Amino acid sequence: MARLEVNRSGELEVFVRVIELGGFSAAARVCGMTPSAVSKLVARLEQRLGTRLVNRSTRQLQLTAEGCAFYERGVRILADLEEAERCASEHTAPRGRLRVNANVPFGHHFLLPLASEFLEHHPDVTLDIVLTDEVIDILQQRTDVAVRAGPLKSSNLMARRLGATRMVIVATPSYLARHGTPATPRELLTHNRLGANYTRAQPGWPLRQGDKDIVLPVTGNAQASDGEALRHLALAGLGVARLAAFQVREDLAAGRLQAVLEDCNPGDQEEVHAVYVGQGGHMPLRVRALLDFLAGRVELSAK
Question: Distance between CA atoms of 45 and 48, rounded to whole angstroms?
């Protein structure tokens, strides 16, 4: 009976908040406790389990292998509890705040235009959208879903593939009229090649010359922090940019931009995934609703 006296669900929720918020003080503010009380609760939890869950330092907390497994299971358990309470109270519709992080191009071309339709279908959900081309720590930023482009690093997070997009080099007709349209990768070396300054940006542009693959360095006179900013620099006639095809398909169709060196395009694609914590039925309904919604409406492929 002694075990029943322990509020294990309460302890679990506090522990999860500590990890999600990155510290005792932040978790204490959310849980209405003092930092010392939160620290003691985690220590009691570790003592009862007979294992260390987090390594403490003056700057941050780091999960141990046992703590990581306990956290992941804890998130699933809390999600199940939340869903069970909803079912018991006959509130089975998705509800609550849904924090979504997305790269800027995906946000501008898909997430923001689709937001009103999603909220019409799920009026009890509140969207909290953050757009950045930097890869964020989902747990530290308290994010439910993060949309990421490019290869995924190995992690304990779950991912749902939304599609893939080819890349294309573009410039305005006016820029090409002034500087000439490159017919070979070597001719592209004389052009102003606009680049990205975020940490995960590729160091160069892959191209194919005959049967040989090459990487062209990006050495233009302007850089930008996200793909949409690069698109606007290209639209301003500043130079050539390599962008996702879905970003520029309307510009290409309207003649605002022109694709160059398509014969040298290696056809590489950038995959886009929605990354989240939990799997299968072990996630909040609002998260599952967004994943299903995006998977059914996002069309990334573009010729």
Answer: 5
Query: Domains in the chain: how many in total?
Result: 3
Full domain range(s) for residue 181: 166-267
Query: CA 35, 36, 41, 47 torsion: positive or negative?
Result: positive
Tell whether 80 and 120 lie within a shared domain.
Answer: no
Cβ 99 vs Cβ 284: under 8 Å: no
pLDDT score recorded for residue 29? 85
- Placement of tokens 């003691």 in the chain: 40
Question: H helices then E strands: how many in the chain?
Answer: 11, 13
Amino acid identity of residue 45, one-letter, is L
For residues 205 and 136, give the distance between their C-alpha atoms in angstroms, rounded to a whole number.
24
Residue 154 has pLDDT above 80, yes or no: no
Q: How far apart are CA 109 and CA 272, in angstroms?
A: 13
Supply the DSSP symbol for 261.
Answer: -
**Which residue's entry shows tokens 């990354």?**
275
Judged against a pLDDT cut of 60, whether residue 150 lies above it is answered with yes
